[in-house]
Amino acid sequence: MTRYLPFAMATCAMMFTFMQISAEERNSLTEDEKNAGWRLLFDGRSTSGWRGYKSDKMPESWRVENGSLFSRREQGKSVGDIVTEDLFDDFELRVDWKMKPGHNSGIIYRVVDLMG
Fold it and tell me: Could you give the C-alpha distances from 37 to 31, 65, 89, in angstroms and in order?
């Protein structure tokens, strides 16, 4: 039993270290990506740069948790799609998302928001 204790402790330490990686480190660009003109749409910490579709504010259902941007319907909170505050003409979109099988990412692009 004591023979496996150091291995178990090392494994736990590695898992704890991995869990401590910040959202900024997980959601970051390489130097090559930066030099090529890529930019992040989501900073991993806030809804900065986003707003509700056809609205000037963010729907209350949207929040950031554990480095993820998501919406959860709750009684009495506004819901809705979100869009970036900036407009883009020519772009490549690269996305990582966490979804249960059979669900929709909900990503739409090239929308026209005449009210925002």
Answer: 10, 27, 14
pLDDT tens digits for 19-77? 444 545 667 899 999 999 999 999 999 999 999 999 999 999 999 998 888 888 888 88
Task: For residue 87, give the nearest of 63, 62, 55, 109 by alpha carbon.
Answer: 109
What is the enclosing helix (H) or strand (E) of 1?
Answer: none
Topology of the domain covering 23-116: Jelly Rolls (2.60.120)
Judged on CB neighbours under 10 Å (0-12, 13-18, 19+), 62 is buried
Domain residue ranges in the chain = 23-116
Amino acid at 43: D
Which sign does the torsion angle of CA 64, 66, 68, 71 carry?
A: negative
